[in-house]
Amino acid sequence: MAVFFYRVGRWAFRKRRLVGVLWVGVLLVVGFLGVRAPSSEDEALRMPGTESQQAFDLLAERFPGTNPEAAEARLVFQASDGRQVTARANKAAIEKALDTLKGSAQVDSVSDPFTSGAVSDDGTMAYSRIRYTVGADDLTQEAKQTLQAAADQARDAGLTVEFGGTALLTQPQTGASTELIGLGVAAVVLFLTLGSVIAAGLPLMTALVGVLISLMGIFALARPLGLTSTVSILSLMLGLAVGIDYSLFITSRFRDERARGREPAEAAGRAVGTAGSAVVFAGATVFVALAGLSVVGVPELTKMGLAGAGTVLISVVIALTLVPALFGFLGDRLLPRAVRKRLGVGRSRLTGRRSAGIGGTVANGPFAPDVTSTPAAGSATAHGKRPGIAVRWARFLVRRRLAALLVGVIGLGVVAVPAFSLELGIPGDESKPVTNTQRRAYDLLSEGFGPGFNGPLTVVVDASQAADAQAAADTVARTVRNVDGVVSVGAPVFNPAKDTAVLTAIPASAPNTDETRDLVHRIRSAVDAVEDDTHTSVAVTGRTAVIVDVSESIYSALVIYLVVIIGFAVILLLVVFRSILVPLKAALGFLLSVGAAFGVVVAVIQWGWASSLFGIDQTGPVMSIIPIFVIGVVFGLAMDYEVFLVSRMREEYVHGATSEDAIVTGFRHSGRVVTAAAVIMISVFAGFIGIAQTNIRTTGLGMAAAVAFDAFVVRMAIVPAVLALFGDRAWKLPHKLARVLPNVDVEGRSLDACLSPQTTAPDKEATPDPVGGR
Q: What pTM was computed for the model?
């Protein structure tokens, strides 16, 4: 495989103009389609096969004149100083404000709070429901201004007015300021790592190209596939992170090969053949982890996973083709100025041609191997220089392997303790900051009508087989009314065919509480007992019922999902590293890092610890689908760092280094780049914490924390410690298994054999050995 990707890298380098034109053409075509495509509306969370979804589907079928996706506004009025909204002046002001809405553009109906029983018991509050004929995304600016004007009119009369509902909800913005900070941090890290402005700009540029193509593709497919704004934001997050990292790894290897004296095209080919092979396998783990989200059965999660997987695929292809093509355009300007000056490199604008001519590997020319980058792992650096921090850290881990392992595992275990208190839900208006009008409307309704008013349960009665539909519906209503925890049950409302009734039950507790979740189960058990007697089919839905169904479905699918992705990764790493210990260690390390990440999410999002540092004003439950999405993304990224770091260690080992020297040398070559990649990914993910949408903010926090724990604790401490503990046994593979598994050659041994057999170092796997043979 290394030879194949070597040829890809050389081809892209030599045909750089063709490669560049092809990618520009792809960007222009996809961009044109994305710009011209109609936008998609954000859809409610659907969970096919659950009772709550079956109830929604039955309502859509039996009440054909209604639009379940229609926008709704809830105007909440409060009289000042404890006065009554029923007072003549206040009542007149409310009726006048509502009259301005009746018959206005896109308004379907406006309820009268004084005739519909929408006045609080103490008479200080009232509310009106305004239903529209279209969804929130299709509301015109005129309709929104009319709604605002009606509220302002009531405010001018001395009333407090707040908005609830979906009519004035806005699409989540991408938080440009915080994301720019994240990109700024990435640029600084790239410059410090690569020592060249041009080299630092290359990963940023290629990542942006991949992100633009991915986003334009999502926009083009948004309407036919129902892709929401959340899908595009998460794809942007992933595309920036992996796009920068994949390009960084290949660029770093190209620079290393050039410093060893390789001719530019040869260096590009070897960079793609070695680091590019690692990128392919790393990207494959992320792709499978994201695409595997489709097994959960949540359509929105499937869309997020497949869109993210497509974004990662595009990033991998760009890293394998566009990046080496840009090597050809930028040449030796990718090297730091100090290095160019030290090596005497000319400032050619083309393919890195030197003033002394072009050649392959040279012994004494300006591109002779950099002696400071090739000392033996266990020795001091050339010229007696003190070894770098990566070497010193690796040596420390090798010496203190058991202590490092225990500290890392115990530390992550402690951080993961809050994860056992994880609460899943669907954050609503109660999770918004108190400065938000939806949050203030929520609080007013809870105060005036009880905490359960904001989360009513809808009971749908299919009485098509009942002898007396009205009597059957009344029986169900009495049954629900007698359930402990139900405050009130409205009269049955029938469809025009009189075969389906809808009941509205108000709980005594707020939506996102354990009491209301338990109430859903009690109501379902109670109505199940009367279905046979009444010859009806009863389904309970509503916000809390959806929370219950989604959470139970995700929990039941989580085990299957983990088996699928972990099983695939273990097999993949088994093939890549030809070792049993490495894939098992990688999977266990992932569990530690993701557990610690959820510990941080619970502590910040639910408990409010240090929430002000992250701009979080209100605590609340975690969106039901976020944990499994974070698990998928983090698992793939964890395997990324495992492949990038350990593949260089294995490369040294199979070329003759001892197990301990391989750890130190591999760490010296890859440690700084992996560290830089992790810091970049953390900064990109953390940039999305500034987005006002709770789901995106929680996802950004969880993924940033997970990458930090996985990269700096698991991969940079626990992994080297475990490899040092096991020594040569870490790289062993039973002979029978070695003969069955394909040899994908990520470390590029076949390149040495095919291209430079006379200079290849002794290969530990040239003969059957403990690693598993050829």
A: 0.77
